[in-house]
Design a protein that fits this description.
With 490 residues, the protein is α/β, with parallel strands linked by helices. The protein has helices spanning 44-60, 68-83, 86-97, 101-108, 110-125, 159-173, 187-199, 213-221, 234-247, 269-279, 301-313, 333-349, 383-386, 402-410, 425-434, 466-471, and strands spanning 10-11, 16-17, 24-28, 35-40, 129-133, 139-146, 149-153, 176-179, 206-208, 227-231, 250-254, 259-263, 291-297, 352-357, 371-376, 393-399, 414-415, 418-421, 441-442, 456-457, 460-461, 474-481. The protein is built from 16 helices and 22 strands. It is globular, with a radius of gyration of 24 Å.
Protein backbone atom coordinates (compact mmCIF):
# COMPACT_ATOMS: atom_id res chain seq x y z
CA UNK A 1 0.00 0.00 0.00
CA UNK A 2 1.32 3.43 -0.91
CA UNK A 3 0.78 6.71 0.93
CA UNK A 4 0.79 10.33 -0.17
CA UNK A 5 4.14 10.83 1.57
CA UNK A 6 5.96 8.02 -0.24
CA UNK A 7 9.08 8.96 -2.25
CA UNK A 8 11.08 7.07 -4.84
CA UNK A 9 14.20 9.20 -5.35
CA UNK A 10 17.18 10.58 -3.48
CA UNK A 11 18.61 14.10 -3.69
CA UNK A 12 22.09 13.58 -5.11
CA UNK A 13 24.02 16.60 -6.32
CA UNK A 14 20.94 18.86 -5.95
CA UNK A 15 19.03 16.62 -8.37
CA UNK A 16 16.44 13.90 -7.74
CA UNK A 17 17.92 10.56 -8.79
CA UNK A 18 16.79 6.95 -8.61
CA UNK A 19 18.48 5.00 -5.79
CA UNK A 20 21.00 2.26 -6.48
CA UNK A 21 18.89 -0.40 -4.69
CA UNK A 22 15.24 -1.19 -4.02
CA UNK A 23 15.71 -1.02 -0.24
CA UNK A 24 13.24 1.24 1.56
CA UNK A 25 12.83 2.91 4.92
CA UNK A 26 9.41 2.50 6.46
CA UNK A 27 8.52 5.63 8.41
CA UNK A 28 6.26 4.61 11.29
CA UNK A 29 3.98 6.91 13.26
CA UNK A 30 4.99 6.82 16.94
CA UNK A 31 1.33 7.44 17.81
CA UNK A 32 -0.53 4.90 15.66
CA UNK A 33 2.41 2.50 15.12
CA UNK A 34 1.37 2.38 11.46
CA UNK A 35 3.48 3.03 8.36
CA UNK A 36 2.99 6.60 7.13
CA UNK A 37 5.54 6.60 4.31
CA UNK A 38 8.16 4.61 2.46
CA UNK A 39 11.30 6.27 1.12
CA UNK A 40 14.50 4.94 -0.45
CA UNK A 41 17.14 3.69 1.93
CA UNK A 42 20.45 5.08 0.79
CA UNK A 43 23.20 2.55 0.09
CA UNK A 44 26.98 2.83 0.10
CA UNK A 45 26.79 3.29 -3.68
CA UNK A 46 24.32 6.17 -3.28
CA UNK A 47 26.56 7.79 -0.70
CA UNK A 48 29.59 7.44 -2.98
CA UNK A 49 27.63 9.16 -5.77
CA UNK A 50 26.63 11.97 -3.41
CA UNK A 51 30.20 12.51 -2.21
CA UNK A 52 31.53 12.43 -5.78
CA UNK A 53 29.01 15.09 -6.80
CA UNK A 54 29.95 17.25 -3.82
CA UNK A 55 33.67 16.81 -4.47
CA UNK A 56 33.31 17.76 -8.13
CA UNK A 57 31.16 20.78 -7.28
CA UNK A 58 33.68 21.98 -4.73
CA UNK A 59 36.80 21.37 -6.78
CA UNK A 60 35.50 22.61 -10.14
CA UNK A 61 32.05 24.16 -9.73
CA UNK A 62 30.99 27.79 -9.31
CA UNK A 63 29.66 27.69 -5.74
CA UNK A 64 32.95 28.05 -3.78
CA UNK A 65 34.13 30.68 -6.27
CA UNK A 66 31.09 32.93 -5.96
CA UNK A 67 31.38 36.02 -3.82
CA UNK A 68 29.88 35.79 -0.31
CA UNK A 69 27.18 38.22 -1.45
CA UNK A 70 26.14 35.94 -4.31
CA UNK A 71 25.81 32.99 -1.95
CA UNK A 72 23.92 35.14 0.55
CA UNK A 73 21.36 35.97 -2.14
CA UNK A 74 20.68 32.27 -2.78
CA UNK A 75 20.31 31.51 0.93
CA UNK A 76 18.05 34.54 1.35
CA UNK A 77 15.79 33.09 -1.35
CA UNK A 78 15.76 29.81 0.54
CA UNK A 79 14.70 31.71 3.68
CA UNK A 80 11.69 33.24 1.93
CA UNK A 81 10.64 29.88 0.50
CA UNK A 82 11.08 28.19 3.88
CA UNK A 83 8.95 30.80 5.66
CA UNK A 84 6.05 30.02 3.33
CA UNK A 85 6.13 26.31 4.24
CA UNK A 86 6.42 26.44 8.04
CA UNK A 87 3.09 24.73 8.68
CA UNK A 88 3.90 21.96 6.20
CA UNK A 89 7.28 21.41 7.83
CA UNK A 90 5.78 21.31 11.33
CA UNK A 91 3.19 18.75 10.26
CA UNK A 92 5.79 16.51 8.62
CA UNK A 93 8.00 16.49 11.72
CA UNK A 94 5.11 15.69 14.06
CA UNK A 95 3.97 12.93 11.70
CA UNK A 96 7.32 11.19 11.49
CA UNK A 97 8.71 11.56 15.03
CA UNK A 98 5.73 12.39 17.26
CA UNK A 99 6.67 15.85 18.44
CA UNK A 100 3.53 17.60 19.79
CA UNK A 101 2.23 19.84 17.01
CA UNK A 102 2.23 22.76 19.43
CA UNK A 103 5.98 22.31 19.87
CA UNK A 104 6.52 21.76 16.15
CA UNK A 105 4.74 25.02 15.34
CA UNK A 106 6.58 26.84 18.14
CA UNK A 107 10.08 25.50 17.55
CA UNK A 108 10.56 22.55 15.19
CA UNK A 109 9.77 24.63 12.08
CA UNK A 110 10.11 28.34 13.01
CA UNK A 111 13.47 28.00 14.79
CA UNK A 112 15.23 26.59 11.69
CA UNK A 113 13.87 29.47 9.61
CA UNK A 114 15.12 31.92 12.26
CA UNK A 115 18.54 30.29 11.93
CA UNK A 116 18.60 31.00 8.20
CA UNK A 117 17.73 34.65 8.78
CA UNK A 118 20.33 35.00 11.54
CA UNK A 119 23.11 33.37 9.52
CA UNK A 120 22.35 35.57 6.50
CA UNK A 121 22.72 38.66 8.67
CA UNK A 122 25.91 37.34 10.24
CA UNK A 123 27.35 36.52 6.81
CA UNK A 124 26.75 40.09 5.62
CA UNK A 125 29.07 41.40 8.36
CA UNK A 126 31.51 38.50 8.56
CA UNK A 127 35.21 39.37 8.01
CA UNK A 128 35.72 37.16 4.98
CA UNK A 129 38.98 38.93 4.24
CA UNK A 130 40.85 41.49 6.31
CA UNK A 131 44.25 43.19 6.20
CA UNK A 132 46.30 43.64 9.38
CA UNK A 133 49.52 45.53 9.99
CA UNK A 134 52.34 43.04 10.39
CA UNK A 135 54.52 43.02 13.51
CA UNK A 136 57.58 42.65 11.26
CA UNK A 137 56.47 45.41 8.93
CA UNK A 138 54.31 45.32 5.85
CA UNK A 139 50.78 43.89 5.84
CA UNK A 140 49.15 40.52 6.45
CA UNK A 141 46.00 39.40 4.63
CA UNK A 142 43.77 36.97 6.57
CA UNK A 143 41.14 35.09 4.54
CA UNK A 144 38.30 32.76 5.55
CA UNK A 145 37.97 30.12 2.85
CA UNK A 146 35.47 27.21 2.70
CA UNK A 147 36.60 24.10 4.54
CA UNK A 148 35.56 21.86 1.63
CA UNK A 149 33.12 18.96 1.38
CA UNK A 150 31.03 18.60 4.54
CA UNK A 151 29.29 15.51 5.88
CA UNK A 152 26.30 16.51 8.01
CA UNK A 153 24.62 13.94 10.27
CA UNK A 154 21.60 15.27 12.20
CA UNK A 155 19.52 13.27 14.72
CA UNK A 156 15.80 12.51 14.74
CA UNK A 157 14.64 14.62 17.69
CA UNK A 158 14.84 18.10 16.12
CA UNK A 159 15.73 17.16 12.54
CA UNK A 160 15.37 20.51 10.76
CA UNK A 161 16.86 22.49 13.62
CA UNK A 162 20.01 20.38 13.62
CA UNK A 163 20.38 19.97 9.86
CA UNK A 164 20.09 23.70 9.14
CA UNK A 165 22.64 24.51 11.84
CA UNK A 166 25.08 22.70 9.55
CA UNK A 167 23.66 23.29 6.08
CA UNK A 168 23.28 27.08 6.21
CA UNK A 169 26.80 27.98 7.40
CA UNK A 170 28.21 25.41 4.99
CA UNK A 171 26.37 27.03 2.08
CA UNK A 172 27.24 30.58 3.08
CA UNK A 173 30.95 29.81 3.36
CA UNK A 174 31.06 28.10 -0.06
CA UNK A 175 31.21 24.47 1.05
CA UNK A 176 29.39 21.61 -0.59
CA UNK A 177 27.53 19.19 1.68
CA UNK A 178 26.20 15.65 1.95
CA UNK A 179 23.42 15.21 4.53
CA UNK A 180 22.52 11.85 6.06
CA UNK A 181 19.20 12.22 7.89
CA UNK A 182 18.21 9.74 10.57
CA UNK A 183 16.08 6.88 9.20
CA UNK A 184 13.29 7.81 11.62
CA UNK A 185 12.92 11.31 10.14
CA UNK A 186 13.59 11.49 6.39
CA UNK A 187 10.31 13.17 5.37
CA UNK A 188 11.15 16.73 6.40
CA UNK A 189 14.38 16.62 4.39
CA UNK A 190 12.45 15.91 1.19
CA UNK A 191 10.63 19.18 1.60
CA UNK A 192 13.95 20.87 2.36
CA UNK A 193 15.41 19.38 -0.83
CA UNK A 194 12.57 20.81 -2.90
CA UNK A 195 13.16 24.25 -1.39
CA UNK A 196 16.91 24.10 -2.07
CA UNK A 197 16.32 23.37 -5.75
CA UNK A 198 13.71 26.11 -5.99
CA UNK A 199 16.09 28.59 -4.34
CA UNK A 200 18.66 27.97 -7.07
CA UNK A 201 21.39 26.06 -5.23
CA UNK A 202 23.69 24.88 -8.06
CA UNK A 203 24.10 21.28 -9.19
CA UNK A 204 26.33 19.13 -7.01
CA UNK A 205 26.27 21.38 -3.98
CA UNK A 206 23.76 19.52 -1.74
CA UNK A 207 22.89 15.84 -1.40
CA UNK A 208 20.42 14.25 1.05
CA UNK A 209 20.73 10.48 1.50
CA UNK A 210 18.82 8.89 4.41
CA UNK A 211 20.20 5.65 5.79
CA UNK A 212 21.38 3.70 8.79
CA UNK A 213 24.63 3.46 10.72
CA UNK A 214 26.59 1.57 8.06
CA UNK A 215 25.96 4.26 5.45
CA UNK A 216 26.65 6.98 8.01
CA UNK A 217 29.99 5.49 9.00
CA UNK A 218 30.92 5.10 5.34
CA UNK A 219 30.23 8.80 4.86
CA UNK A 220 32.34 9.76 7.88
CA UNK A 221 35.25 7.60 6.73
CA UNK A 222 35.08 8.71 3.09
CA UNK A 223 38.47 10.17 2.08
CA UNK A 224 36.80 12.91 -0.01
CA UNK A 225 35.08 14.42 3.05
CA UNK A 226 36.90 17.38 4.60
CA UNK A 227 34.70 18.00 7.65
CA UNK A 228 32.09 16.10 9.64
CA UNK A 229 29.34 17.94 11.50
CA UNK A 230 27.40 15.65 13.84
CA UNK A 231 24.64 16.01 16.39
CA UNK A 232 23.71 12.97 18.46
CA UNK A 233 24.75 10.78 21.33
CA UNK A 234 28.08 11.13 23.09
CA UNK A 235 28.87 7.47 22.37
CA UNK A 236 28.45 8.00 18.62
CA UNK A 237 30.31 11.30 18.85
CA UNK A 238 33.33 9.62 20.42
CA UNK A 239 33.49 7.15 17.53
CA UNK A 240 33.14 9.86 14.91
CA UNK A 241 35.74 12.01 16.64
CA UNK A 242 38.17 9.09 16.69
CA UNK A 243 37.72 8.48 12.96
CA UNK A 244 38.21 12.16 12.19
CA UNK A 245 41.29 12.24 14.42
CA UNK A 246 42.86 9.34 12.53
CA UNK A 247 42.35 11.16 9.25
CA UNK A 248 43.08 14.68 10.59
CA UNK A 249 39.61 15.57 9.32
CA UNK A 250 37.84 18.60 10.76
CA UNK A 251 34.83 17.85 12.92
CA UNK A 252 32.27 19.54 15.12
CA UNK A 253 30.27 17.44 17.56
CA UNK A 254 27.12 18.55 19.40
CA UNK A 255 26.47 15.74 21.85
CA UNK A 256 24.51 14.78 24.95
CA UNK A 257 23.58 16.59 28.11
CA UNK A 258 22.36 16.12 31.66
CA UNK A 259 21.63 19.71 32.54
CA UNK A 260 20.93 21.00 36.03
CA UNK A 261 18.39 23.65 37.01
CA UNK A 262 19.54 25.22 40.29
CA UNK A 263 16.67 26.64 42.33
CA UNK A 264 17.87 29.19 44.88
CA UNK A 265 15.80 29.73 48.02
CA UNK A 266 14.51 33.13 46.91
CA UNK A 267 13.14 31.80 43.60
CA UNK A 268 9.42 32.17 42.86
CA UNK A 269 7.97 28.67 42.91
CA UNK A 270 5.30 29.31 40.27
CA UNK A 271 7.91 30.61 37.82
CA UNK A 272 10.17 27.65 38.53
CA UNK A 273 7.45 25.09 37.88
CA UNK A 274 6.25 26.78 34.69
CA UNK A 275 9.82 27.13 33.43
CA UNK A 276 10.79 23.55 34.14
CA UNK A 277 7.54 22.17 32.70
CA UNK A 278 8.87 23.41 29.37
CA UNK A 279 12.63 23.17 29.81
CA UNK A 280 12.58 19.78 31.52
CA UNK A 281 10.28 17.87 29.17
CA UNK A 282 10.24 19.91 25.94
CA UNK A 283 9.69 17.75 22.88
CA UNK A 284 8.44 14.99 25.22
CA UNK A 285 11.82 15.03 26.97
CA UNK A 286 13.70 14.25 23.76
CA UNK A 287 16.05 17.24 23.88
CA UNK A 288 19.77 17.40 24.60
CA UNK A 289 19.39 20.68 26.53
CA UNK A 290 16.54 19.43 28.75
CA UNK A 291 16.89 20.51 32.39
CA UNK A 292 16.44 17.09 33.96
CA UNK A 293 18.32 17.50 37.24
CA UNK A 294 16.43 19.89 39.53
CA UNK A 295 18.71 21.06 42.35
CA UNK A 296 16.87 22.40 45.41
CA UNK A 297 18.02 23.31 48.92
CA UNK A 298 17.16 20.77 51.60
CA UNK A 299 14.82 23.32 53.20
CA UNK A 300 12.70 23.58 50.04
CA UNK A 301 13.21 20.11 48.58
CA UNK A 302 9.82 18.66 49.49
CA UNK A 303 7.90 21.81 48.61
CA UNK A 304 9.49 22.17 45.17
CA UNK A 305 9.32 18.43 44.44
CA UNK A 306 5.59 18.31 45.20
CA UNK A 307 4.90 21.38 43.06
CA UNK A 308 6.90 19.95 40.17
CA UNK A 309 5.15 16.60 40.44
CA UNK A 310 1.78 18.33 40.35
CA UNK A 311 2.76 20.46 37.36
CA UNK A 312 4.41 17.67 35.37
CA UNK A 313 1.73 15.16 36.28
CA UNK A 314 -1.01 17.44 34.97
CA UNK A 315 0.49 17.78 31.49
CA UNK A 316 -1.65 16.50 28.63
CA UNK A 317 -0.29 13.30 27.09
CA UNK A 318 -1.64 12.07 23.78
CA UNK A 319 -1.99 12.39 20.02
CA UNK A 320 0.82 14.64 18.78
CA UNK A 321 -1.53 16.18 16.20
CA UNK A 322 -3.89 17.43 18.92
CA UNK A 323 -3.05 21.09 19.70
CA UNK A 324 -3.81 20.43 23.39
CA UNK A 325 -1.12 17.73 23.67
CA UNK A 326 1.96 18.68 25.69
CA UNK A 327 3.69 15.28 25.81
CA UNK A 328 3.76 13.07 22.75
CA UNK A 329 5.14 9.56 22.21
CA UNK A 330 8.77 8.52 22.13
CA UNK A 331 10.12 8.34 18.58
CA UNK A 332 10.35 4.54 18.50
CA UNK A 333 9.57 1.46 20.55
CA UNK A 334 13.24 1.05 21.44
CA UNK A 335 13.22 4.58 22.90
CA UNK A 336 10.07 3.86 24.90
CA UNK A 337 11.72 0.74 26.29
CA UNK A 338 14.91 2.65 27.10
CA UNK A 339 13.11 5.39 29.03
CA UNK A 340 10.91 2.85 30.85
CA UNK A 341 14.01 0.91 31.88
CA UNK A 342 15.49 4.04 33.46
CA UNK A 343 12.30 4.60 35.44
CA UNK A 344 12.70 1.08 36.84
CA UNK A 345 16.36 1.79 37.57
CA UNK A 346 15.30 4.87 39.54
CA UNK A 347 12.92 2.77 41.64
CA UNK A 348 15.64 0.20 42.29
CA UNK A 349 18.15 2.89 43.25
CA UNK A 350 15.79 4.07 45.98
CA UNK A 351 14.54 7.33 44.47
CA UNK A 352 11.01 8.37 45.45
CA UNK A 353 8.56 8.23 42.54
CA UNK A 354 6.16 11.18 42.90
CA UNK A 355 4.31 10.98 39.59
CA UNK A 356 4.38 8.98 36.37
CA UNK A 357 6.09 5.65 35.99
CA UNK A 358 6.11 2.91 33.38
CA UNK A 359 3.15 1.81 31.31
CA UNK A 360 1.12 3.57 28.64
CA UNK A 361 -1.04 6.40 30.04
CA UNK A 362 -4.77 5.77 30.40
CA UNK A 363 -6.85 6.23 27.26
CA UNK A 364 -4.05 5.41 24.81
CA UNK A 365 -4.33 2.03 23.11
CA UNK A 366 -1.41 2.50 20.72
CA UNK A 367 1.76 4.55 20.61
CA UNK A 368 5.20 4.50 22.21
CA UNK A 369 4.27 6.62 25.20
CA UNK A 370 5.92 7.15 28.58
CA UNK A 371 4.15 8.88 31.44
CA UNK A 372 5.94 12.12 32.46
CA UNK A 373 7.81 11.18 35.61
CA UNK A 374 9.29 13.00 38.62
CA UNK A 375 11.62 11.39 41.15
CA UNK A 376 12.46 13.05 44.48
CA UNK A 377 15.17 12.27 46.99
CA UNK A 378 17.64 11.56 44.20
CA UNK A 379 21.34 11.33 44.93
CA UNK A 380 23.53 12.73 42.16
CA UNK A 381 25.50 9.49 42.03
CA UNK A 382 22.41 7.54 40.87
CA UNK A 383 22.27 6.47 37.24
CA UNK A 384 19.07 8.46 36.68
CA UNK A 385 21.06 11.57 37.66
CA UNK A 386 24.21 10.78 35.71
CA UNK A 387 23.03 9.20 32.45
CA UNK A 388 21.10 10.89 29.65
CA UNK A 389 17.64 9.31 29.57
CA UNK A 390 16.18 11.33 26.68
CA UNK A 391 12.61 11.12 27.88
CA UNK A 392 10.20 12.95 30.22
CA UNK A 393 11.95 11.97 33.47
CA UNK A 394 13.07 14.55 36.07
CA UNK A 395 15.20 14.04 39.19
CA UNK A 396 14.95 16.39 42.20
CA UNK A 397 18.24 16.53 44.10
CA UNK A 398 18.86 18.29 47.44
CA UNK A 399 21.85 20.55 48.10
CA UNK A 400 23.29 22.06 51.30
CA UNK A 401 24.27 25.54 50.10
CA UNK A 402 25.10 27.37 46.87
CA UNK A 403 28.64 25.97 46.77
CA UNK A 404 27.20 22.48 47.07
CA UNK A 405 24.68 23.20 44.32
CA UNK A 406 27.46 24.29 41.95
CA UNK A 407 29.48 21.21 42.89
CA UNK A 408 26.55 18.90 42.11
CA UNK A 409 25.80 20.70 38.83
CA UNK A 410 29.43 20.23 37.78
CA UNK A 411 29.50 16.59 38.93
CA UNK A 412 28.62 15.26 35.49
CA UNK A 413 30.50 14.14 32.41
CA UNK A 414 28.30 16.54 30.45
CA UNK A 415 28.37 20.32 30.18
CA UNK A 416 25.84 21.46 27.62
CA UNK A 417 23.23 23.67 29.32
CA UNK A 418 21.77 24.71 32.65
CA UNK A 419 19.77 27.31 34.49
CA UNK A 420 19.58 29.07 37.83
CA UNK A 421 16.33 30.42 39.30
CA UNK A 422 16.50 33.35 41.69
CA UNK A 423 15.06 36.77 42.53
CA UNK A 424 18.63 38.16 42.54
CA UNK A 425 20.00 38.45 39.01
CA UNK A 426 23.55 39.19 40.19
CA UNK A 427 23.50 36.10 42.40
CA UNK A 428 22.29 34.15 39.39
CA UNK A 429 25.12 35.49 37.24
CA UNK A 430 27.55 34.46 39.96
CA UNK A 431 26.27 30.89 39.73
CA UNK A 432 26.28 30.99 35.91
CA UNK A 433 29.98 31.89 35.89
CA UNK A 434 30.83 28.86 38.06
CA UNK A 435 28.90 26.10 36.31
CA UNK A 436 30.94 24.47 33.55
CA UNK A 437 28.54 24.39 30.63
CA UNK A 438 28.63 25.88 27.17
CA UNK A 439 25.26 27.61 27.56
CA UNK A 440 23.37 28.80 30.62
CA UNK A 441 20.31 30.79 31.61
CA UNK A 442 19.28 32.98 34.53
CA UNK A 443 15.52 32.52 35.09
CA UNK A 444 15.21 31.42 31.47
CA UNK A 445 16.85 29.30 28.81
CA UNK A 446 16.84 29.67 25.07
CA UNK A 447 19.15 29.55 22.07
CA UNK A 448 19.85 32.92 20.53
CA UNK A 449 21.19 32.38 17.03
CA UNK A 450 23.44 35.42 17.32
CA UNK A 451 25.42 33.60 20.01
CA UNK A 452 27.44 30.36 19.95
CA UNK A 453 25.89 27.09 21.15
CA UNK A 454 27.79 23.99 22.22
CA UNK A 455 29.11 22.10 25.18
CA UNK A 456 31.99 21.54 27.56
CA UNK A 457 33.39 18.12 28.42
CA UNK A 458 31.52 15.14 26.88
CA UNK A 459 28.83 17.42 25.48
CA UNK A 460 30.83 18.11 22.37
CA UNK A 461 33.50 19.90 20.39
CA UNK A 462 33.03 23.16 18.52
CA UNK A 463 30.17 25.65 18.38
CA UNK A 464 27.06 26.27 16.30
CA UNK A 465 25.33 29.60 15.60
CA UNK A 466 26.71 33.12 15.73
CA UNK A 467 29.89 34.15 13.89
CA UNK A 468 31.62 31.31 15.72
CA UNK A 469 29.31 28.79 14.09
CA UNK A 470 29.90 30.25 10.64
CA UNK A 471 33.67 30.15 11.16
CA UNK A 472 33.49 26.39 11.88
CA UNK A 473 33.01 25.88 8.13
CA UNK A 474 36.07 27.85 7.07
CA UNK A 475 39.80 27.39 6.93
CA UNK A 476 41.86 30.47 7.76
CA UNK A 477 44.57 31.40 5.29
CA UNK A 478 47.32 33.96 5.91
CA UNK A 479 48.92 35.81 3.00
CA UNK A 480 52.05 37.86 3.74
CA UNK A 481 52.18 41.00 1.59
CA UNK A 482 55.64 42.30 0.74
CA UNK A 483 56.44 45.53 -0.98
CA UNK A 484 56.09 45.30 -4.78
CA UNK A 485 59.40 44.91 -6.62
CA UNK A 486 60.64 48.02 -8.42
CA UNK A 487 59.44 48.23 -12.02
CA UNK A 488 62.15 47.31 -14.51
CA UNK A 489 63.29 49.52 -17.36
CA UNK A 490 60.88 49.66 -20.28
Amino acid sequence: MTTSLDRDALLIGTEWRSPATDNVIEVISPHTEEIVARVPEGSVADMDAAVAAAREAFDSGPWPRMSPQERIEVVARLSALYAARLDDMATLISTEMGSPISFSKLAQAPAPWMQIEAFVNIAREFPWEETRPGVLGGEVLVRHEPVGVVAAIPPWNVPQFTVLSKLIPALLTGCTIVIKPAPETPLDTYLLGELLIEAGVPAGVVSIVAGGREVGEHLVRHPAIDKVAFTGSTAAGRKIGAICGEQLKRCSLELGGKSAAIVLDDADLTSVVEGIKFLGVMNSGQACVAQTRILVSRDRHDEVARALAEGIGSMVVGDPMDPATEIGPMVAQRQQERVSSYIEIGRQEGAQLLTGGTGRPDGLDTGWYVQPTVFAGVDNSMRIAQEEIFGPVLSVIAYDDVDDAVRIANDSEYGLAGTVWTADREAGLGVARRVRTGTYGVNTYTMDFAAPFGGFKASGVGREFGPEGLAQYTEVKTVYLGEPAPAGDA
